[in-house]
Amino acid sequence: MNSLRLQLPPLNGLIIFEAAGRLASFTQAARELNMTQAAVSYGIKQLEDALGVPLFRREHQRVRLSEDGRRYHQDVTLALEHLRRSTETLRRSQSGTHVTLSCSTAFASWWMLPRLARFRQDNPGIDLRLQTTDKDIDLDTEGISLAIRRGDGRYPGCHAAKLVDESIIPICSPAYLERAGKIATLADLKRQRLIHLDEPFRPRPNWADYFRAAGERLTPDDSGLHLNDYALVVGAALEGQGIALGWRHQTDHLAARGLLVHPLDRPWVTGLAFHIVWSRGAELTMEAETVRDWLGGDPAIPEPTWPARSP
After folding, report:
1. Which residues in 165-186 are b (16+ Cβ under 10 Å) and which e?
2. Model confidence over 197-236: pLDDT tens digits?
3. Angstrom distance (rounded) from CA 126 to CA 307
4. pLDDT tens by residue, 70-115
5. Residue closest to 211 by CA, chosen among 252, 266, 262, 151
6. What is the spatial distance between Cα 291 and Cα 25, in angstroms, rounded to a whole number?
7. 174: which residues sit within 8 A by CB, 6+ positions away?
8. Judging by DSSP bridges, how do beta strands 62-65 and 56-59 pair with one another?
């Protein structure tokens, strides 16, 4: 078998071709690559001569990929992206000091941030970086060490360790409950101003699911406040805007400080859980294993350094 050196064109020419094809401009490619426009044109010409195929159609004051060039550009882009990800993974494994945790904004705000000072105290040599996202991303493609997912523990291509069982209970501010008066039944709850989570990407239980799980054929009031991020839902409940569904692993510490109350003590354990997940295709660094095990140890939240809000 002939060597790759003889079968493949120079890597630098492929990098120039990727940029020129993506930008549909030799001038813009030169600017991005910090080269002259003449050097880009020469690199493309060398690549075309090596392949024996015109990759671009030169038109007045612009260039565009030929049909052969378009197909080749797709393959070159995929190959270079795969090489970039592999290089990034290798560098990350060698530096080994930073770990990325992908999670929702709500988990970062209401579970992780209150524990972050303790994490740094327990693990001073690890740079933990939180990456919030509104959907569950591919860990391999994005080069993510760990993520938080909701489900039954089965996630294609991933290992999983349970963090906490999913338990949901109504929450509101003490001020809202004082205005609303006693809420003794689900029917009383239904008549309140409800805060709804309209999650656009991840499946999440809603008020109708909560009432159904409680065995009541009640249609919740849909005229309340609708928000598309759970961090905003909790914030609205704290500000007395209505009653929300509280995921207990994120809101119990707020209730313990008196910032939230449970207007009706009817928790719902769904049978699902939140898990720490990591890719089956990439070995965790020692630092990522440390983070995973620390999270799984359900670390307590330190006592706040600021006073609790008065009811």
Report:
1. ebebbbbbbbebbeebeebeeb
2. 998 888 899 999 999 999 887 777 778 899 999 999 999 9
3. 30
4. 999 999 999 888 888 777 666 655 555 689 999 999 999 999 999 9
5. 266
6. 45
7. 258, 260, 261, 311
8. antiparallel
